[in-house]
Automatic annotation (TrEMBL):
Organism domain of life: Eukaryota
Protein name per Swiss-Prot or TrEMBL: ELMO domain-containing protein
InterPro entries listed in its UniProt record: ARM-like (IPR011989), ARM-type_fold (IPR016024), ELMO_ARM (IPR024574), ELMO_dom (IPR006816), ELMO_domain-containing (IPR050868), PH_domain (IPR001849)
Annotated ELMO domain residues: 307-480
GO molecular function: SH3 domain binding
PROSITE patterns linked: ELMO
Keyword Magnesium set for record: no
Taxonomic classification: Eukaryota, Metazoa, Chordata, Craniata, Vertebrata
Alphabetically ordered keywords of this record: Apoptosis, Phagocytosis, SH3-binding
GO biological process, one term: apoptotic process
Amino acid sequence: MPPPKDVVKIAIQMVGAIPQLIELQQSKPLAAVLKDVCDAWSLPNAERYALQYADGRQTYITELNRGEIKNGSILRLTTSPDQEAERLYSGIQSNNVDVKTDSLKKLASLSQDVTFAQEFINRNGLKLIFYIVEEGNDAGEILAHTLKAFMELMEHDFVSWETLSAAFIKKIVSYVNMNAMDASVQQLSMSILENMVPSSRVLFELVKKEVTVDRLLTHLQVMNTQLQLKAMALLIALLLAATDAERRDMMEYLREKNIRQFIHKNIIHSSEPLGDEMAHYLYVLQSVSLNLHERRMRTSMDPYSQEQRELLQSLRQAAFESESDAPAGTFSTERRRSLCAKEFRKLGFMNNSNPAEDLRRAPPGLLALDNMVYFSRHTPSAYSRFVLENSSREDKHECPFARSSIQLTLILCEILHVGEPCSETAQAFYPMFFGQDHFFEELFCICIQLVNKTWKEMRATQEDFDKVLQVVREQITRTLSLKPTSLELFKTRVNALNYSEILKLRQTERLHQEETLAVPVLELRERLKPELLELIRQQRLLRLCEGTLFRKVSSRRRQDKLWYCRLSPNHKVLHYGDVEEGVQSPPIESLTEKIPVADMKALLVGKECPHMKEKSSGKQNKFCLWTDGLNVLLGKEMTSERTQTDLDVLLSMELKLRLLDLENISIPDNPPPVPKPPSNLNFCYDFSHAEQ
């Protein structure tokens, strides 16, 4: 007979004693359970003891988390959190260096547990940590353990970052600014400042003032990748917390210091592989930089602005040696106005009498004007060739420069997500972005010439304008998906992807689509699905058995801890546990935490999951594989988009193999009619009369 649901069978260990195997009644008060355990070992003062997991993070068992105890769990009888907090509180004040060091090391470890952390903080333990840092008498290992313990204690949000003293903050800042300082201390110090920055405006201004951008750039250029990573994290935190004006100034200063070139050469193209965290920070840096264009993108042209009118006139003057620019007495005002309108029409403005009206739409607003002016000033020969070439064509075949530029700017803003907030986990950055100053404007210069090239290839007229720009959008997105490492490589590839190539790709995709829409093929797809779905299920389970390395993401988005999880070969138990940086595939025996598959009831993802704090819709393949695999273990359908993608690929391959013999043969929608049976079967051979 199975045990009641509120009873779990567990083992309890204690140093120097024979383990106890008990049935833990979850309805029984934890104090009473501890009393029984202590009595069995003849231990007095049960209130001085507590239970904690013997493996993994060794979390203390409380009334709040006891429901997480599973059948087969191994617990350990240990000193209660309040007793341990009292002991370490005394230990870190010891004059014995070894005792103090060991106490701080243990404190850093135990502070990950919320129960212990609360007990230590309630004893005013943070005051002791502040004292160690502020006095500045300790360094090296003692200081590193102290800062680590502080970080873990602050992680639980019992204490506000705004309560930190000026002396404490000054010391942390000094560790970052010192040249001769232990690398681990500098890493922890930058992590502390990174968490301080978004907490309040006052702390942001303090850190920004005390830790200069130059100092962070110095840390970025070291060989220690972890120190480099923490410096980048602090820089990104400062950028995200800054006002628009401050962010603009910081980005301009970084540009002057050639930060992009350094990142492109020494981080992106480093011999060391790029980690997930650094990839995310580079994505954020790219996004922040591109979003500097948002203000101009959302600002309409003001026809009364002298500066903006002069920019507009400069486009006309750069393209034509105009008669309208002759001395004032040469032509009448009406004649001069007529000549200007004619030249603006040749430039491709729809409202040639008042071209400012074309730029009233925002987005793309003034950003389109900026791009046109940049193109005319930095590539004047290409600009003149574009305008004059189209001025000499027949009216119906001319490619309108201004109209195309306005629409292209809008397309680039949409593709590059200008004006959109940064995702908290995205890692998709373009390597070529960091190899080029004025990236957006230079990309525009390449793509506006692509518009003219594609226009001629399509033999387009004004009525084909939207169709041409749709092809150009496709050319750009397809090329960007290849992640070219430089703008030159982008230019080469996007120009190679001409209109005829786009038509071939579209035709191929359309043929694939039409093939799957034929009724007999649809029926064949349905017959193949069960077999291929089973193949995907087996692949998912194999992937779970191989295991995956995950990063822990806390409420403050810290991602510096790792844990590994894998499924046992018999598919009955999930093994998991904390691992160190650099460990790729730990043996299953080293993963001490276990979850029996039989105890799993349901899988919650997205908004349904109470622990899920991620708001972005970024997809990561490893999570899709795990959600699929867990659903297979639960006997449920695989619901991820990755499953559908894999199924489509396998079905497409299988269908192509099955239909090879039918190439160039049209498949009818309906099967041929089955003829009526013959009136007699006399034509059949009778084997009973075979010769003997």
